[in-house]
Amino acid sequence: MRRAVILLLLWGGMELLLSLDKGDHTASSETLLVFGFLILAAYTVGEIVTVVQLPKVTGYLAAGILFGPSALGVISLHSIAELAPVSRLAVALIAFLAGAELRWTELRDRAKPLLTMLGVELALSFAAIMGLLVVARSYVPFLSGLPMPETLVLSALFASVAIVHSPAVVMALLTETRARGPVARTTLGMVLVADIVVVLLFSGLLAIARTAVPTSASASGPSLGMVAWEIGGSLLVGAALGGAIALYMRFVKRELLLFAIVVTFFGSEIARLAHVEVLLTLLVAGFVVENGTKQGAAELLHAMERSAAPVFVVFFALAGAAIMVRDVLLIWPIAVAVVAVRAIAIAFGCHVGARLSRAGHMERRYVWMGLVAQAGVAIGLVAVVSEVYPERGAQMATLFLAVIAINQLLGPVLSRIALKNSGEIETGSGQGSSEPALAAETAARTP
Amino acid sequence: MSGPLLLILAVAVAYLAAHVAFDWLARRFLIISGAEYLLLGILLGPQIANVLSVEVMASFSPLVTLSLGWVGAIVGTQFHIPSLVRVRALSYRVAFGEAMLTLIFVALVELAVMEWWLGMSELDAVAPAVALGAIAAVSAPAGIGIVARHLGRRSALLRQLEITTAIDALVAIVAIGLLLALRHPGDMAVSRPITPTEWVVISLGIGIIGGAMFELFLGGERDEDRLFISLAGAIILTSGAAAFLHLSPIFTAMVMSATLVNLSSNREAIVRTLHSSERPFYFVLLIFAGATWEPSLRAWVIPVLLYLVARAVAKAGGARLAARLTGTLTTLGPHWGRALLGQGPLALALGLEYVRMPNAPVPNVVFTAAIAAVLLLDISSAWMVHSVVEPLTADADRTPRPAGDVS
Questions:
Q1: Most CB atoms closer than 10 Å: which of A10, A427, B113, B354?
Q2: A60 and A201 in one domain?
Q3: Contact A33 B241 (CB under 8 A)
Q4: ipTM
């Protein structure tokens, strides 16, 4: 009740303030206002939804939809665009934190089940989504009226993007629940490796598509050399950045909150200038720091989690605000079909992969649920398609954003159910039980 | 290399320098860090290297507003009424006397300078004169803390200095907050124009209602990470609302945090959380203040020089007069006002607020005065405090303590 009153007060206050605007305000003052409102409103909705056992991430997304342009309109499209740097910062933070969660010894031990499950799951999802689009091509806007070869190519392109997962949602949930069990760790490993695989697959398919389906646009897709640099360069830049951070942690190790923010900004800016993948660069940096220092990066990670908290709240709220409900409603039958087929394929693929690699019972049953959510990289890849094929790409983007919208809402809920049912978080408290909570882990690793 | 990247590097280098060099210097030679970031901002800004171009500065404007709000919120946490009532009323009389005398004296001197030297009308000259008076009232508290640690003990004078710097900040922030409200451009979509008094009430209202609402929001929250999210949201929203309405973010954030600490049962955690994150905002503020500076060679020399002289006279004389009027001159010493000469980030923050005020007359004169004062006085502020406090402490040590004195 208290939270609902706060939400109403916040909304009322914002409406009052925004109604005073004559349209001649500087963008920055409105941006800051919306930023502050989003932190508090989304955080409040996040707290409210935990009452019904939903993850906070779902609450943040719901707050974005509620206050976004599709519903109450407190957050305008202009504000969403103005707050884009926050989303970029969030992606960088997520990547660094995710990389630091990966331990080399653990990866080595889990490599077989992880790669087998991922391989089977991605292959099955790709084939199932592509098959669905080909079969239902007369109902898919971007495939209607196309001859079979082009239908196959564009369906493959769509499927290569649709199989991607969401490291952001997985990391946010692991941070929220502090789960550190086998299901959590396998899920995290899979979503991270999947990103690299998908970027490679997508780039290859786009190159084929550009030959098979000529584009009217002058924009060119990524060449093979560019893709190689994006991946290789990310590894190089990320390793260098990670090495520098490790040195800092060894010799200076002070003002970690400020250092965490500087590192993330610096990393994403360097990646942007070097034309390498931000996500992969920061992921490698986090991995190098965690595995290249004796004490690990526990203190830095704690500082980073702290600075990341408000950024995550706004990041997911903005993702929710960007969901155009009307667009989703226009093409909901085919979007729901893609979501259903993808989810079934992921579940089946994980099950088969886990059996083949003799993974544990819990992983066999629950890992797939953490792979349903989508965002981040997927949206970026769709934007590339839209650049290469302006007309068909735009239709593809609409369908894809509808699929992402459904998966974004469904994914966190399924992830939480998976972690709860596998016994890696306690009901209600949100704290990890089978593995040490992050705070305890941090304390234990701190000298 | 891009502007944002260089800015990140600048902040990183600045803060490493602070730790490697200036922390040591502060302990060893009582030198306070701060002015070097300001200098860095001037070097990187549009006047010299243009790394922080006007466009880059505009894109970071929300961050500057947030930094202003954070500074205001930290000042506001000092006004916890149950703690304040434990201090003798005499201490407040001295502090308010010194702050008001400084504000009025400097404002009158500057009013005369603006009218006679710059040829401004009385109506136009009032705003910069009051702004300079308010900025003059501010005293840097950092030197006092360093000297207290250096001497390893606390004295009545040090306590009085702490109270005085808090009251100086209060007087200065309120003066700037009122100035912005009273000179509001009135560019709002409302059925009738909002009067200046109503803008003052709105400024206060945002702070008080914000503080009360955030207390409801925080509840009994003790977890520092959750507190951080909530406080960050509260300060961003309050300072954003003030900036949106062309009011003072420092003033509204100060009122908000003062309300919050008085309503909350969780004051210590709130204060700790706010202080744990203050340094990055100070760095941002100082660097951007330096980069924002636009020197005007035509007419600024006399008003700025007079500001420095008038402030020194007002601080020394005002403090002495206030102590004499309240009968505390023997305890505080005749030169205790010298310990209040230092100026730090708050003075710059108030200068920045004035510069950002719509249609502010002679903004660069006011800002140049604030920058000059910080560059000249920030580094030496701890020495000045030490030169006043140390002899009195030594005297107190030599004086035999009467039986029963436990002070």
A1: B354
A2: no
A3: yes
A4: 0.78
